[in-house]
Amino acid sequence: MSELKISIVHPHKVVSRLVEEKDIDRVYEDSKEIYKIFGRRVGLYNTFLAIAHPQITKKEPLRFFVINPSLKITEDFPEAVIINPEIIRHTNNTVDSEEGCLSFPTIPPTIVQRWNKCEVRFKVLTPDRKISDWFTMNLSGMMAKVFQHEADHLDSKYIYLIK
Predict the structure, then answer these.
(1) Is the pLDDT of residue 72 over 90?
(2) Can 150 be counted among the known catalytic residues?
(3) Catalytic position from the list 21, 33, 60, 150
(4) DSSP assigned state of 30
(5) pTM over 0.85
(6) Alpha carbon distance 153, 58 (integer Å)
(7) Distance between CA 150 and CA 101 in Å, rounded?
(8) Helix, strand or coil for residue 153?
């Protein structure tokens, strides 16, 4: 395995700022490093569904997260760096979601409430190192839960600290 240039940081209260065009090189380099974490065991966990930028830096975290390549949102996004995500709408119904968190690698999964379905809006990092136009998608099940979990990180919320 290649050496990591980054490390997991402790939970913090710094809310992520929106990604701008001037940030593209940082998003590209940091997302490359985040992809390396997916193949590693950290504490109790040997896999992660997604990792948010604030989980690797407290210094001006950016509003993006990286989805594990094994978890496709759709065929259009086999690998995805999700930029400036927003939850536009959601159902009123919540479901139990058993979740663990890379920010707390020694704590077993816990049950949190998540909306069953949500409509999201986001941009992606394109292969040619640009920021795409906006995409809007309706998510349900696992992808809805992952999106909500990572969006919480971007807003400095953590599953073990919001109960």
Answers:
(1) no
(2) yes
(3) 150
(4) H
(5) yes
(6) 12
(7) 10
(8) helix
- The CATH number of whichever domain residue 149 belongs to comes to 3.90.45.10
Q: Which of 59, 60, 72 is nearest to 124 (CA)?
A: 72
Write out the H or E segment, with its range, that includes residue 152: helix 141-154
Q: For residue 1, is pLDDT > 60?
A: no
Length of the chain: 163
Structural domain for 93, as ranges? 21-154
- Report in angstroms the alpha-carbon separations of 125 from 9, 14, 17, 102: 23, 23, 16, 23
Looking at the DSSP bridge assignments, the partners of residue 64 are: 83
User: Which two tokens mark 58?
Assistant: 């407290």
How far separated are the first and last CA of the chain, in Å rounded?
36
- Residues whose CB falls within 8 Å of the CB of residue 157, separated by 6 or more in sequence, listed in order: none
> In this structure, are residues 63 and 84 in contact, taking their beta carbons and an 8 Å threshold?
yes
If one counts the domains in the chain, the total is: 1
Nearest Cα to Cα of residue 54 among 158, 159, 147, 162: 158
